[in-house]
Amino acid sequence: MRSMVKMGWLALLLAVGCAGRQDLETPDYEAIYDVPLEEMWPSVREYFTAANLPYREDRGSLVLETEWKQEFGGSKIAGYWHRYMVIGKRETPTKSKLWIIRITKSVNKALSQPGKELDWGIAAARTADSEGSGSLNLSPEDEAARLSFPVGENAFYMESGQGTRDLTMEWRVFRGIMPKLAKKQAVSAEQQVAKAPGAKEAPTFTECGQSILGLKKLAKAGGVLLLGELHGTQEVPRFIAQSVCQLVTAGMPVTVGLELPVENEERITTFLQSQGGEVDWLKLMEAPFWRSPYPDGRGSEAVANMLEQLRHLRAQGLDVAVFVYDHPKLSGQPREDALTKTVLSQVKAKPERFHLVVSGNVHPRTAKGLPWDKQYKPMGYLLKDQLDDVMALDMAYDSGTAWICAADTQGRKLDCGVKEAKGKDNGDRFFMHTWSSANKDGYHGVFYVGHVTASEPAVLKGLGNPNASAAPSPASGL
């Protein structure tokens, strides 16, 4: 009987191992361990210990909860924290499974529970104690919630939270511990990370945020995915960094194309290869681009933080590359031609990589013509004519704010600042969605980033000198 069970383990491992190496997408069904729950659980503890995710455990019920951790990427300004609740489930006397709930907290009020700010009665009242210590008289439940709050400089500003079952994490744990359970070390079901050329090692576990739905099925070697964004939000740069992290840790090398001036290529490459120290930040931020008199959102705090996150992934030995391709001295069709030439040279030089190219939402269109110029050929249209695999996604978002440059009421100059952005609520989960055919603008679908929040120019936040005080934010525009 025991030998039959071992053969079952081996067959399952072989099946999952092949799928893990050939398909970036996470299965949409549960991972079932062909082993009793009590025998599986010690390996669960070992996995989370090895992944540097400290936890507390309720040993009587086979449930553990990890400590709060800042969102992936070593962010300087992260406003997101998460923890995992891991619940052992008995499928049958001889089989088991895990439920893993990812709990996220954010400074963003978009995820806040309705009525959270309301005080429902005197039992929930919060008043200073009678001894004048400044502490609050809290109920036992409130005190427990306070003590389990995120730790760090953002902790006191957390506004909202959500809990979601994380099927991707469940499969990562399964692939990590099942080979050891089966005692077949030569058989590995772990997905292979995309290790950078020359890197001595790459991490077996990297936190990449909640899975972006629909991302991995669009990522192919040699493929080009064009994202048309609204500049000046916190969410798009985070979406890009999170996408890259999830792809490279699943085995796909990624090159990111950013709509920044080509004159900054060497400076950005140097920063990505650096240790990310104070001098490295100063050299990055010395470029005139960051101090444009009309900051349109591409030089935002969130973009600077995204570069730091990509640098952090590279520093771990993961295969991430970045190039810039804007030609700001040109305009109209000559600019589109120059953008296309620069992107095309990058793609053809590295056809084994997946290219994720981000820009304002005119350039990615794969259809000819604009409302004011029917003969206009956007970058996406020109690339599609010369490459086999080009897909363009337009940005979708819930209403909020963005840092936008727009003509003033007289139409004489640009007015840059925080402005309202009208969108449609499709939930708070990042996702990509494609249609059966392209629309009239040549977009094949959308990428959704949830509620949007303005991100101010990086120089207003003192980035480039981590010890400097942030400059005061202007009341309205620049």
UniProtKB/TrEMBL annotation:
Protein name: Putative lipoprotein
Keywords for the protein's UniProt record, in alphabetical order: Lipoprotein, Signal
Domain of life: Bacteria
Residues of the signal peptide: 1-21
